[in-house]
Amino acid sequence: MSTALASPWPTELKFSSAERVLTITFDDGSSFKLPAEYLRVESPSAEVQGHGASQKQTVAGKRDVGVSGIEPVGRYAVRIVFDDGHDTGLFSWAYLQQLGREHTTRWAEYERRLTAARLTRDT
């Protein structure tokens, strides 16, 4: 028997264009509503995350960003294509679940970084 932790597996993934929210439900029963803006500013791409925690970029002006496509990547992730042209982040199932669980704290930190940099969510 394997002692490795089971990876989260999505049972439902849908995007509401009207609400600009991705809803994802996992096989462990957890379910999250992730706004497009949140997904965009927390993209796992090197453009946003850099190559280490100290290099993370604060992405401003994305309040009205939407999603123009969601593409499967193997059986482990999706590529989210944002309507601002950003499409380089691969969102693994584990990362999407992490974003859901940490939404409140990550969003508060994002707003603190915006304020410190004198940036806004608006374009």
Describe this structure in words.
With 123 residues, this protein is an alpha+beta fold. It has a single domain (10-112), classed as NE0471 N-terminal domain-like (2-Layer Sandwich), CATH 3.30.2020. Helices cover 27% and strands 28% of the residues. The protein has a three-stranded antiparallel sheet with strand order 1-2-3. It has a three-stranded antiparallel sheet with strand order 4-5-6. The radius of gyration is 15 Å and the shape is globular. It starts with 9 loop residues before the first strand and ends in a 7-residue tail after the last helix.
Summarize the structure.
The protein is α+β, with helices and mostly antiparallel strands and 123 residues long. It has a single domain, classed as NE0471 N-terminal domain-like. 27% of the residues lie in helices and 28% in strands.
Provide tags for this entry:
123 residues; alpha+beta; three-stranded antiparallel beta sheet; 4 helices; 27% helix
Instruction: Tell me the β content.
Output: 25-35%
Order of helices and strands, N to C? EEEHHEEEHH
Alpha-carbon Rg, integer:
15 Å
Overall pLDDT confidence: 92
Distance between the termini: 53 Å
Strand order of the largest sheet: 1-2-3
Q: How many domains make up the 3D coordinates? A: 1
Please identify, by name, the CATH architecture.
2-Layer Sandwich
How many strands in all? 6
Given helix and strand content, the structural type is: alpha+beta
Approximately how much helix is present in the residues?
25-40%
Low-confidence stretches: none
